[in-house]
Amino acid sequence: MELAAFVSNLERLAGEAEQAFGSAHDAASVEQARVQYVGARSGQMKSLQKEMGALAPSDRPIGGKKLNEVKDRIQLALDSAQARLNASSPAVAKGLLLDPTLPGRRIRLGHVHPITQTIDQLKQIMGRLGFGVAEGPEVEDSWHNFVALNIPQDHPARDPLDNFYLSVAGRSAIDGVSENARLLRSQTSTVQIRVMESVPPPIRIISLGRVYRPDEADATHFPMFHQMEGLWIDQNVTMAQLRSILRMFATNYLGSDVSIRFRPSFFPFTEPSVEVDFLWNGNWIEFGGAGMVDPNVLSAVGYDPEQITGLAFGLGVERLCMRRHGVHDIRDLYRNDLRFLHQF
Ligand code: PHE
Questions:
Q1: According to the model, what pLDDT value does residue 91 have?
Q2: Contact, 17 vs 69, CB < 8 A?
Q3: What pLDDT does residue 214 have?
Q4: Which residues have CB under 8 Å from 14's CB, separation 6+?
Q5: Is the terminal CB of the chain with fewer CB neighbours within 10 Å at N or C?
Q6: Model pTM above 0.90
Q7: Of 146-155, 201-210, 309-318, which gets the smallest average pLDDT?
Q8: 289 C-alpha to center of ligand 1: Å?
Q9: Alpha-carbon distance 261 to 275, whole Å?
Q10: Atom 12, ligand 1: residue with shortest CA distance
């Protein structure tokens, strides 16, 4: 091929391309011209480039130089067409480099954590049974966590190995056990005391929150978990009422006609005391403890045990949630693995 013909083809192509880009007034026509002139597969630039091979070897340096010049001209025309489009788009005018023709990005909705969902459901169920919600602090003193709950100084429940004591005013955590010890509460029964100290009977409350015990984490233990505490204080409250409330609660939450079983037990703050089992899917499962509020506890908060009676219960929230949803390892609830959490 003649060098002159090759060069004039290039010139013609450059002229056409400049014209096309110059008159392109929207993104689609710029794109169309881009494909036509500089498209990697079938663009006209590409086919001219191939014709280089047909030039005499001595003409190739000049032909190549011309080819590069024309490439640059076309690229310039393309760039300025794009710049012109961008400048006229309202998004760019506002300072946003946004291409409104791109498909949208899907917004992933977050999920309420399964334990928080469970807590909300428990509040609803107990609300329908007439229980209001009370709250108490997670950092407690030994009065509310032990003394007022009839747990004496030498009781094993106060062992530093079973509690998260906090060091107070320069003293070590262990020294602090005796008098004004502070600790992360080991049970929500603390809230019973706080409520009874501040209001006279009758009382009908639940309290839902975190409790802490230095247990090694495994499939059924975690150093932090949640309890639902219930307290009903009035004249003539009975064990039969305790049983009905727990049975109605279980039937509502677990969704079928759940049977309930009390096994004799011991808690310093209730007398008598029981462990509470629910019969669910053919298995008896322990969900917590309960009993009639001990007269010593009623006296500690200034009530007259001759006049006032009460029932109390404490259930494990994780256990309820795990049974209902078929979760087998409590650690799954606290690993923050989105693949797990997305299922709720
Ligand atoms: N506080 C007890 C526990 O943590 C449960 C309980 C609450 C028992 C109320 C009786 C009454 O194991």
A1: 60
A2: no
A3: 96
A4: 70, 73, 74
A5: N
A6: no
A7: 146-155
A8: 5
A9: 8
A10: 289
pLDDT number for residue 41: 79
Q: What angle do CA 317, 247, 231 make, to 5 degrees?
A: 60
User: Is the separation of the CB atoms in 217 and 223 below 8 Å?
Assistant: yes
**210, 267, 296: residue to mutate for ligand 1 pocket, most atoms within 8 A of CB:** 267
Q: Is the CB of 150 under 6 A from ligand 1?
A: no
Please give the single-letter amino acid code of residue 73. R
Closest by alpha carbon to 331, among 183, 228, 215?
215
Over the range 318-334, which residues count as b (16 or more CB within 10 Å of their CB) and which as e? bbbbbbeeebeebeebe
- The answer to whether the CB of 188 falls within 8 A of the CB of 122 is no
Domains of the chain: 3-93 (no CATH), 114-341 (3.30.930.10)
Q: Is 232 in the pocket of ligand 1 (CB under 6 A)?
A: no
Ligand 1 centroid to residue 267 C-alpha, Å: 7
Mutate which of 186, 189, 274, 318 for ligand 1 pocket (most atoms within 8 A of beta carbon): 189
In this structure, are residues 208 and 134 in contact, taking their beta carbons and an 8 Å threshold? no
pLDDT in tens, 170-206: 665 554 456 578 999 999 999 999 999 999 999 999 9
Listed in sequence order, the residues at least 6 apart from 159 whose beta carbon sits closer than 8 Å to its beta carbon are none
Task: Report the share of the chain in percent with pLDDT over 70.
Answer: 94
Return the pLDDT at 172. 58
Examine the pLDDT at 14 and tell me if it is beyond 80.
yes
C-beta of 163 in contact with ligand 1 (< 6 A): no
